[in-house]
Automatic annotation (TrEMBL):
<comment type="similarity">
    <text>Belongs to the autoinducer-2 exporter (AI-2E) (TC 2.A.86) family.</text>
</comment>
<dbReference type="InterPro" id="IPR002549">
    <property type="entry name" value="AI-2E-like"/>
</dbReference>
<feature type="transmembrane region" description="Helical">
    <location>
        <begin position="203"/>
        <end position="226"/>
    </location>
</feature>
<dbReference type="Pfam" id="PF01594">
    <property type="entry name" value="AI-2E_transport"/>
</dbReference>
<feature type="transmembrane region" description="Helical">
    <location>
        <begin position="232"/>
        <end position="253"/>
    </location>
</feature>
<feature type="transmembrane region" description="Helical">
    <location>
        <begin position="53"/>
        <end position="79"/>
    </location>
</feature>
<keyword id="KW-1133">Transmembrane helix</keyword>
<feature type="transmembrane region" description="Helical">
    <location>
        <begin position="154"/>
        <end position="182"/>
    </location>
</feature>
<feature type="transmembrane region" description="Helical">
    <location>
        <begin position="5"/>
        <end position="23"/>
    </location>
</feature>
<feature type="transmembrane region" description="Helical">
    <location>
        <begin position="29"/>
        <end position="46"/>
    </location>
</feature>
<keyword id="KW-0812">Transmembrane</keyword>
<feature type="transmembrane region" description="Helical">
    <location>
        <begin position="265"/>
        <end position="286"/>
    </location>
</feature>
<feature type="transmembrane region" description="Helical">
    <location>
        <begin position="298"/>
        <end position="325"/>
    </location>
</feature>
<dbReference type="GO" id="GO:0016020">
    <property type="term" value="C:membrane"/>
</dbReference>
<protein>
    <submittedName>
        <fullName>AI-2E family transporter</fullName>
    </submittedName>
</protein>
<keyword id="KW-0472">Membrane</keyword>
Length: 356
């Protein structure tokens, strides 16, 4: 008995020490694990023809080109343009003027009154620069701090790609070890649990990333069709924020408002319609389609998973939140379905939540 206690304490101490050593790299390790697992089928196909080492190199290069290079371009260009942004911000604050749109006065009955109210509001708002101008330096400093934080994230991304190379290279051994641990813990349910976890992770990752990329492309297309500036840049920004369920509207709604307020009412209306039915509509079609290939995670849990994950884990929670909730929901449904007399009820409950 004493030997078992000592062995347990020894193993606990070793585990604690390993955790302390790896803690600074935990974020990069998790990113690398998610990236490797999600792209493993692609790596297997490349490895079949090129070999494991060359396959891992190709996957690392491709992932860097797809993920890291666009982020580096956006961040570096933003940092380089920061002085110009500060100058434009100062100029805008000191010469603020927003005339009423021409279409506003043409509204029957209430148009002239609305135009007068707009002019009065714009005149009052023009004095805001006197209050904001002293804080312009702080605003620029906050922008720089945010960009530096993103740059720090790029360093972690580089570390994750470096680790992912070795995960691709030794993925078979790592997977066998993970499966053996699950079998020791779960026994007869191990294979089923491993399959559920794998499908849920891939479905969640594909759903989030696939939806974000498509919404980014559509937003850039919408900006280009309506004549808004920098459609490629705003498309890339949309792809970044669209991992959140309400991310894309944060980009195209201000664009539509800018069109309406600069005497392009119908262009703004077209962008609103395009954003509502096409850009945001993708979120209700593509995301469930991808996720349903793994575990049919209800949309409510997807939203709660992303928001709660970001709140708890930061950027990594965008993936960890839905994955953890998806695995928990699927395992709960799996165990409930095995209770005698509950299988039909469980299936009906799942259908109700998923359809909602």
């Amino acid at each position: 008995m004493t030997e078992r206690i000592m062995m347990g304490l020894l193993l606990g101490g070793v585990a604690f020490g390993c955790g302390a050593i790896l803690y600074p790299f935990m974020s990069a390790l998790l990113w690398a694990a998610i990236l490797t697992f999600a792209t493993w089928p692609i790596y297997v196909r490349i490895r079949r023809n090129m070999g494991p080492v060359v396959g891992a190199v190709i996957m690392t290069v491709l992932t860097t080109l797809v993920v890291a290079v666009p982020l580096v371009i956006v961040v570096s260009s933003s940092i380089a343009d920061l002085p110009g942004t500060f100058e434009r911000l100062t100029t805008s604050l000191t010469s603020f003027h927003l005339p009423a749109p021409t279409w506003l006065s043409r509204i029957p009955l209430v148009g002239p009154d609305l135009a007068n109210k707009w002019t009065q509001w714009a005149t009052d708002l023009g004095h805001v620069e006197h209050m904001l101008l002293p804080y312009a330096g702080n605003i620029a400093q906050s922008m720089l701090s945010g960009l530096m934080l993103v740059a720090s994230g790029l360093v972690h991304l580089g570390m994750a790609l470096f680790i992912a190379f070795f995960f691709w290279l030794g993925g078979d051994a790592l997977g066998a070890t993970f499966a053996a641990v699950i079998r020791r813990i779960a026994g007869a349910y191990a294979d089923r649990i491993i399959g559920i976890i794998g499908r849920t992770i891939r479905g969640t990752v594909y759903g989030i990333l696939g939806t974000a990329i498509i919404q980014g492309v559509l937003t850039g297309l919408g900006f280009a069709m309506t004549g808004l500036p920098q459609p490629v840049l705003f498309g890339m920004i949309t792809a970044g924020v669209a991992v959140l369920p309400i991310g894309a509207p944060l980009i195209w709604i201000p664009g539509a408002l800018a069109l309406m307020l600069t005497h392009h009412l119908w262009r703004g209306i077209c962008l609103v319609a395009f954003g509502t039915f096409i850009i945001s509509g993708v979120d209700h079609v593509i995301r469930p389609m991808f996720i349903s290939r793994g575990a049919q995670l209800p949309y409510l849990l997807t939203v709660l998973g992303v928001l709660g994950g970001v709140w708890t884990f930061g950027a990594l929670g965008i993936f960890l939140g839905p994955v953890l909730l998806g695995v928990g929901y699927t395992l709960t449904a799996e165990f409930a379905a095995n209770v005698p007399g509950r299988a039909g009820k469980t299936a009906r409950i799942e259908e109700t939540f998923i359809e909602s």
